[in-house]
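Our consortium's second objective concerns turning raw sequence data into structural hypotheses that experimental partners can test. To show how far this objective has progressed, the report includes one record in full. It was chosen at random from the queue rather than selected for favorable results. The single chain below, 402 residues long, was entered without modification.
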Amino acid sequence: MGIQIEFNKGRVPVKVWTRNIEPEAIRQLLNVASLPVVHGHVAAMPDVHAGIGATVGSVIPTRKAIIPAAVGVDIGCGMNAVRTSLSAGQLPDNLRSLRMGIEEMVPLGFNMHPASRMRGSALQRVGRALSDRLDRIVGQHPGLMKMQRRFNETWLCQIGTLGGGNHFIELCLDEADRVWIMLHSGSRGIGNIIGRYFIAAAQNDMRRHQLHLPDKDLAYFSEGSGLFDEYVEAVDWAQDYALLNRQRLLAAVIEVLKRQLPTFSLEAEAINCHHNYVARETHFGEALFITRKGAISARAGELGIIPGSMGAKSYIVRGLGNAQSFCSCSHGAGRRMSRSAAKSRFSRFDLEAQTAGIECRKDGGVIDEIPGAYKDIDQVMDDQRDLVEVVHTLKQVLCVKG
């Protein structure tokens, strides 16, 4: 489809890959486009919807600056997917035991691994390099430790945990009935702490320099300042932590499957992609910081994951390297209503109907994640035909939510 709307009311244009966009998201995009550090244009993916300060589903190129609230508080949140040698016929007719096994193995929601199990464990040794880097960051910003009880213990105990909200673990079938493992999680509580701390620090910095912003959540750090370098170090740490968290989650799910299913192997390279992050990249001949807030990298030939909601299709895609999108695409279907609106509009019976045939929670605690709260994933995919091509179409058969 290509670019469907272009706004030219800011300092730079906003290019949007959908017509399904609410007024609040447009306002936020125009606010971002008015910032002096934004370069070229802002790109909005077809799953775009309003966020905090910056719009979810946006790609923001900045020169010599980063906007911490655009990166967000779930720094490095993203996806893992891997194909197994299993076929649909090798799965049991009833998948409840598998779901229960995963829920027993993986701490969900606010839960975490017991500290007694983590001390001296192989995982603690894996996390040693991260620990040394974190000590340096906290040495520069001891205020981080004041934002969470048992700070040093909690981040370690949350490696290999899912969290809540839209995070999930799924078993899916592709078009050839091959079984895939797919999961979605991020940097957990420590990423939230780092994000909130540096968002507040950027806002204080803007006030100190008396810089006017269209939204306080668009406060930024300029390259060359001490806070800029320290934020980059902290955000790089959180993104590496998120990668490790997903790797350990995947290992835990594989362990459960090996206990309950026939012998299998992993057949395809694991796809691991962030969708809330900042990276140094070159576009249109300029060295830039690219913030993808609810978007994934889609360079030419690069594999990515675009999940639907817990009752819809998901896609393994290959990037087409579209320069106008800064080589990016959507990170999912995108919400079409808030969590509170979903809870007031839908019932548990709606959830049961919309997730028929899928082994998953069907209680009031996950109504805000009901498929009806999300945009139509097929329309989202149609809107970005010039950004990615579909490699595999996946359908969930089991979904674990926090």
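The partners drew two points from this record. The longest helix spans residues 226-260. The CA atoms of residues 164 and 402 lie 4 Å apart. Both points have been shared with the crystallography group to help prioritize constructs.
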